[in-house]
Design goal:
alpha/beta; Rossmann fold; 9-stranded mixed β-sheet; 5-stranded parallel β-sheet; 18 helices; about 45% helix
């Protein structure tokens, strides 16, 4: 009962409850420690729970899946179900025979295996939700948002950092060892862990930048195909995501490479060796980390609503760029991101060039900056960092 009474309310909870009315199974995925178990238990407060991460529970489910599922006559929560994918076929038979909606919530921390197993066994029976770490809006409502941007960027948004007394550096060190490296070894059978550790740190150094796999592979001393596979695993483990370039050329040549982002700036900072707000304030990648934070907040908004992602960036061959372009049919919302606390005219250069090209396709041009105030400037909405979670409000 404790977890329910003191859980920070999650934006995705209402989306999940709505989906449960139309599907017998909800699959809740997301990074390790993003709060999946807590949320699933809160939604299914009075239903049984089993973690397939526990060896004895997993062994029972593997050896006698029918008897195991008989323990859930009215459904329940099956946690880390990717650890026992064979159970999904038996689950299909049960939900088909039962006919009720909202029976099971399945959670998983890896897309590989889990998604393919559910697609094969539970097609048409399961809805999918991805749960990111806390959003700015969630932290604001809980009264837990850090007072300044650098503290926010350094801490990141993983729930354990907001419900226990632990320094981010200590927590992320344990997190990387316990989950990131272990999960990757399970997925890829990585033998040279040192090379993979170097690869992840090099990725952190490229957050909010174009992803050049060839350059990344060369610097890490691995093949291009290995770099591609490792990026895919980081995506599947919900540690990084890619932003694709928008296709609208406006008669300009566009870059074709995606941009790489971490879901959580706290993890990126830890990988970069940044341990204090003062170090972050002077770090050459602070602007990239701030852009990562804002872009991740936009992604979280759409994930929490269960919406398809319609976020892109725009950059032409001359280096003109808009950090995020949100596509609404034939209308495009440009969002420029600047980490400085004082707005100056240079902040608007990229937006102005893009607006001149986009014409009537432009919608609600916005600038997010490192300060606190919100105001309008020559047709552009200027938003402080604390308001970035409301940019895509319906």
């Amino acid at each position: 009962m404790w977890y329910f009474l003191y859980m920070i309310p999650r934006d995705s909870e209402q989306t999940i409850r709505t989906l449960l009315r139309g599907f017998p199974v909800i699959t809740l995925t997301g990074a390790r420690q993003s709060g999946k178990t807590t949320l699933a238990k809160a939604v299914f407060l009075n239903r049984p729970y089993a973690s397939l991460e526990e060896p004895d529970i997993r062994r029972l489910a593997q050896d006698d899946p029918r008897s195991f599922l008989d323990r859930f006559p009215d459904g329940g929560v099956l946690d880390e179900v990717q650890r026992c994918p064979d159970i999904l076929s038996y689950l299909q038979t049960i939900v088909d025979a039962d006919g009720r909606m909202g029976l099971y919530i399945l959670t998983g921390s890896q897309q590989f295996g889990l998604m393919s197993g559910i697609t094969q066994s539970l097609a048409g029976r399961a809805a999918f939700m991805e749960l990111p770490p806390f959003s700015v809006a969630e932290l604001i409502r809980a009264g837990k948002l850090p007072a300044d941007a650098d503290t926010m960027l350094l801490a990141g948004c993983y729930p354990p950092l907001y419900d226990r007394d632990i320094a981010p550096a200590a927590w992320f060190g344990a997190y990387v060892t316990a989950y990131v490296e272990r999960d990757v070894r399970q997925l890829l059978k990585v033998q040279d862990l040192e090379s993979f550790q170097r690869f992840v740190r090099l990725c952190a150094g490229r957050t909010a930048q174009l992803l050049n796999l060839s350059s990344l592979a060369t610097e890490c001393g691995i093949t291009h195909n290995t770099a591609r596979a490792w990026i895919s695993v980081l995506e599947a483990s919900y540690l990084v995501f890619l932003l694709r370039p928008h296709h609208a050329s406006f008669n300009k040549r566009l870059v074709k490479m995606p941009k790489l982002y971490f879901y959580d700036t706290g993890l990126a900072c830890w990988l970069l060796g940044i341990r204090t707000p003062d170090q972050l304030a002077m770090h050459p990648l602070r602007g990239n980390i701030f852009e990562t934070f804002v872009t991740a907040e936009l992604v979280k908004t759409q994930l929490n609503r269960g919406e398809p992602r319609n976020l892109y960036f725009w950059r032409d061959s001359n280096g003109n760029e808009v950090d995020v372009v949100v596509e609404y049919g034939n209308r495009l919302m440009p969002i420029e991101i600047k980490s400085g606390k004082t707005v100056n005219r240079d902040f608007f250069t990229g937006l102005q060039k893009w607006l001149a090209l986009a014409g009537r396709a432009a919608l609600n041009p916005t600038l997010v900056y490192g300060g606190a105030d919100t105001f309008d400037h020559q047709g552009v909405k200027v938003v402080g960092w604390q308001g970035c979670g409301e940019l895509l409000s319906a």
